[in-house]
Write a structure and sequence with these properties.
By secondary structure, the protein is an all-alpha fold. It has ten helices and no strands.
Length: about 220
């Protein structure tokens, strides 16, 4: 691939670099969906992206690092959604009910990436460390969101926000993982069912200790 013109502006070179990285990333996700992570080679990816094979390694040290990029993308999406919830002053129960579906839109199109993430976490130290860091950052984001709901009386306050955030993430990820392995049913429907069951545990407590208070909108999507 020819070197950038010396007359190219830094902004133009940066846009070109971002476009190439995104093209490689999206080509890889499409191939993972069609033929699986393990079966997809770097050469397959660069051919689909219509770039030279060496270009891949300018952006990703290895194929495993595409999984890290996917995790980073998901974390950025969570950050944007949490910011949206704060800016719109959204009802936390309704927001949480849709959060799981919105966060799993990409995996729903590409279930093989979920299996690859699990495989990568088990077999690759860089992937495992990146996922651990993303877990901690995602946990902190959700904890702050849930603490806000507790302060507003929308979520039970006898458990810490961190405990509730962890259970919420376990419910969503567990549902996603089982769906990715079995392929049974609609993922959004399974996410909604998981949240409806979970809500009985995280809803504010009534005077007799049972779940009460705000009810999530059953018609949200």
């Amino acid at each position: 691939m020819p070197a950038p013109s010396p007359h190219s502006s830094p902004d133009r070179r940066q846009r070109r670099s971002t476009e190439l990285r995104t093209r490689l990333f999206r080509a890889a996700l499409d191939l993972f969906a069609k033929q699986g992570f393990a079966e997809t080679t770097v050469e397959d990816i660069t051919s689909a992206a219509d770039v030279g094979k060496g270009t891949f390694f300018n952006y990703f040290p290895s194929k495993d690092h595409l999984l890290i990029a996917f995790g980073d993308m998901q974390l950025e999406k969570l950050q944007a959604l949490v910011t949206e919830a704060a800016e719109t002053d959204a009802s936390l129960p309704a927001f949480l009910r849709t959060l799981g579906v919105r966060m799993t839109e990409e995996p729903a199109r590409n279930p093989s990436i979920v299996r690859a993430l699990l495989q990568g976490n088990l077999s690759s130290s860089p992937v495992r460390e990146a996922m651990r860091k993303n877990h901690l950052r995602g946990q902190a984001l959700l904890s702050r969101l849930i603490k806000r709901g507790q302060d507003r009386g929308e979520v039970r306050a006898d458990l810490t926000a961190e405990e509730i955030a962890e259970v919420f993430r376990q419910a969503i990820f567990g549902t996603l993982l089982i769906w990715a392995v079995t392929g049974e049913g609609s993922l959004p429907a399974r996410i909604h069912t998981a949240f409806d069951l979970l809500w009985n545990g995280i809803a504010p407590r009534s005077a007799n200790g049972s779940a009460g208070g705000v009810t999530p909108d059953a018609h949200s999507s």
